[in-house]
Amino acid sequence: MKYTLIEEKGPYALILRGESMTQYAVVSGLDKETGSWNWTCCYYDFGEFSELTRAEALFKALDYYLMRTNEKYISWARMSEIATLLKDGLIEDDEEEAHRYMADVAELSAIEAEYFGLDMEQYISATDGDADSRTAPSSAGGDYSPANPRDAPGMGVSDFL
Q: What is the pTM of this model?
């Protein structure tokens, strides 16, 4: 079969394959001399007759390839699963505080919040509810931004003369 080698490590190879070259695949046991391999681990079609774009197909194939060839790599699907479980645990403990945390600390965008299945009305109210209670930056509140550098710990008058 016609293919172009993209990357190879150990028994695995990431290739662009097929007569029309519209498929990324991760294969095992690639024999470069004969142009064959022992088996196909996964493949992703792209193009006119596929739901995936070329970039999406490459991402999915690369994600699988890295999962097989790098022991420290965590796949996108597993990372998404972990994040979802953590989100569910936060909501289970205190839904209102969880939404506030995700808005203020994680700073999830609306698209990210939707991805995790958050109740968008509650999420938006958590982000809007803080707008009225925010105060202007001040050194009394621990703000040592460029607007208040003289109040930063360790700074003295001599630093500004």
A: 0.67
